[in-house]
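PROTEIN DESIGN WORKSHEET
SECTION A - STRUCTURE
LENGTH: 242
TOKENS:
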């Protein structure tokens, strides 16, 4: 899947993000912008990132951009290939399994340790509402984004910056896999109602039920995604060698 992507060669409209850099332009802020663009699928897995076009679009030095690339490589979103350049990473099937192992440990522990209700569910309510609205409009990319927001808000219930940071990286990697799947509706639609069920259980103060629903949810999601992704890799061996 080693595509070069016309968007990356033209800077892909990144000049519009230059204002986000403000007066304190740093490699971390550049990394934030690129991380968001990767998560949105603007730079799909396998895309080569051009230093000239991206640096020119954002108005940053080559050294700053390379430091941003280094940060995202450390986060496993990018990979540097000798004499070829920097590419958006393509995950292997084993990566998908490991991502779900991490999600199960973190997300289920958060729900298990919630304490006594009522819980602060505003973020979860917004994510569920967004997903259901996007589904009605046939916006399955939006449904995918809302689903990520749901799980991020779920972890945020722990009130832990460390957990939030960990899950930000895990979910960003997961989106690399989502962007490779040809039928996002089949992937995400079954989980709209399950997000709602988990939310309803937490609203009712039924933490144990919510945890049980979440365990089943993550196990089923892992099995489905691994099956789909393994088939993709089998069809295109270069898709899962990252």
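SECTION B - SEQUENCE
RESIDUE ASSIGNMENT:
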């Amino acid at each position: 899947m080693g595509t070069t992507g016309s968007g990356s060669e033209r800077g892909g409209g990144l000049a519009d993000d230059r204002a986000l850099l403000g007066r304190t332009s740093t490699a971390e802020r550049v990394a934030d912008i690129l991380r968001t663009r990767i998560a949105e699928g603007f730079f799909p897995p396998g895309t080569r990132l051009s230093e000239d076009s991206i640096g020119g679009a954002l108005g940053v030095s080559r050294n700053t951009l390379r430091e941003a690339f280094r940060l995202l490589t450390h986060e496993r979103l990018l990979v540097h290939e000798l004499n070829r350049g920097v590419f958006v990473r393509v995950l292997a099937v084993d990566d998908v399994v490991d991502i779900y192992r991490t999600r199960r440990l973190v997300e289920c522990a958060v729900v298990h340790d919630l304490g006594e209700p009522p819980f602060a569910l505003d973020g979860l309510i917004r994510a569920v509402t967004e997903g259901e609205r996007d589904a009605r409009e046939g916006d399955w990319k939006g449904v995918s984004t809302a689903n990520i927001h749901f799980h991020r808000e779920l972890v945020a219930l722990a009130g832990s910056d460390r957990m939030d940071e960990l899950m930000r990286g895990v979910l960003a990697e997961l989106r690399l896999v989502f962007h490779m799947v040809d039928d996002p509706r089949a992937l995400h639609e079954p989980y709209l109602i399950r997000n709602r069920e988990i939310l309803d259980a937490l609203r009712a103060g039924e933490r144990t039920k919510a945890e049980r629903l979440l365990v089943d949810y993550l196990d089923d999601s892992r099995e489905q995604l691994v099956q789909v992704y393994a088939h993709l890799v089998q069809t295109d061996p270069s898709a899962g060698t990252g």
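SECTION C - NOTES
The chain has a mean pLDDT of 89.
The radius of gyration is 19 Å.
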